[in-house]
Amino acid sequence: MSDPAGTIQVVPSSRVPWKDVRVVFGTRGDPASCWCQYFKVTNREWNQAPAADRERALCAQVEREPAPGVVGYLDGEPVGWCGVESRTHYPRLLTATVVRGSAEPADDGSVWAVTCFVVRVGFRRRGIATALLDGAVDHARRSGARIIEAYPVDTSERKASAADLYHGSLALYERAGFRVVSRPVPGRAVVALD
């Protein structure tokens, strides 16, 4: 993707240096605490694991194929992350209230889920999330996804905090061609792309 703000390239995380992933997640705030592990572990495991353990877990995961996410670059600089992989890799997600609105069987490995976005401070509102979502969809399709789901915040129904927006906004997904499957909780939706 190219625009006046620069050229955005999105690459599966298995094809990028670990140092680039670390730059995106940073050293403070929610990304540096989560390391895209929240939906991959039980509540107990989450509460017992320090951030350094979560970082090590992601470091090991990004080397595997298919990659668990994509990294976005703006003019060669790492600026964003989007977590996307088979929904079966997210045990906590499968028990979340919002996912109960899915029309797909929980154990179907061909259903992939977009779980989070991280865009570095200073690079927001420049089309990074849109490019990351497009790249995540391409990566999921190339990796065998039949359906791609997400669980965004509907900012037209309620104001969302920055902490809520890691799921992405409903408008972002609708612009990318996702359709609303259900609205299992106020202010949230299940969306899918066939």
UniProtKB/TrEMBL annotation:
InterPro entries: Acyl_CoA_acyltransferase (IPR016181), GNAT_dom (IPR000182)
CDD domains recorded: NAT_SF
GO molecular function ontology, one term from the record: acyltransferase activity, transferring groups other than amino-acyl groups
Record carries keyword RNA-binding: no
Family matches, as Gene3D superfamilies: 3.40.630.30
Residue ranges annotated for the N-acetyltransferase domain, each copy included: 25-194
Protein origin, superkingdom: Bacteria
Keywords carried by this UniProt record: Transferase
Any one Pfam family match given in the protein's UniProt record, by short name: Acetyltransf_1
Keyword Transferase attributed: yes
Protein name per the record: GNAT family N-acetyltransferase
Species this chain originates from: Pengzhenrongella frigida
